[in-house]
Amino acid sequence: MGIAQFMPGTWPNWGRDENGDGKADPYDPQDAIPAAARYDCALAREVQGYVSAGQARGDITDLMLAAYNAGPGRIKEFGGIPPYRQTQEYVPRIRALAKKYEALGVPVSAGQGAFGKVVAESSVQWLGTPYSWGGGTASGPSEGFGSGAGINGFDCSGLVIFVIAKASGGKQILPHSSQIQVTMGQPVNRNQMLPGDIIGFAFNGSGDYSHIGVYMGGGQMVHAPKPGDHVKVSNLNDQYYSSASWLVRRFG
User: Fold this and answer.
1) 171-197 CB burial, b ≥16 within 10 A, e <16
2) Is the pLDDT of residue 66 over 60?
3) How many angstroms from the chain centroid is the CA of residue 169?
């Protein structure tokens, strides 16, 4: 089913409502692609166990892909990639496609420079990380406090702390406050944003810039939205964000 080709019996174990539309849908790429990533990680752990136990041989990523295509039980049964033509063709094909898409990277607009590219790319690496109130440092996810107690992750400003620290080589450590972060860096016109810019939002005319995210280009941002959610990509054309007051900042 859908872009990730989930079997009907497999999808319920891995599918989530990633884009907040109220439905975990295998035919929606925004739901299906993260689910495929979670499933691949679980398969990698499973086939690693087979290799460690001497029940299979081969490269873990190759075995993971073969397990996605043919099922993990077949890896154990045949001691490696099973002798199915479809699976044996699938593994090198996906490997080749991975190299193709890795080469694309995050688009860098003219004049953006390396700093913004690192900001954008380093935000993407944390997609799926749990939201944790007060979580996030220059080193990565951390346990928050209050509703974030016991949760290792990011809140919105914690994610921004990390990406700016990463891009600056640890030279710029921002305060853990979206309200302060939107006063730092270089002001940028909303119509001149580039990937890697930071956007703060004030809702309902409050003047309180209580939320912040990383612009990715194409009208999208990466952010840590709210408790119970996770780091994700959201569309800035959504009424919730487009109707807010914005402050855009560029660092580097």
Assistant:
1) ebebebebeebbeebeebeeeebbbbb
2) yes
3) 21
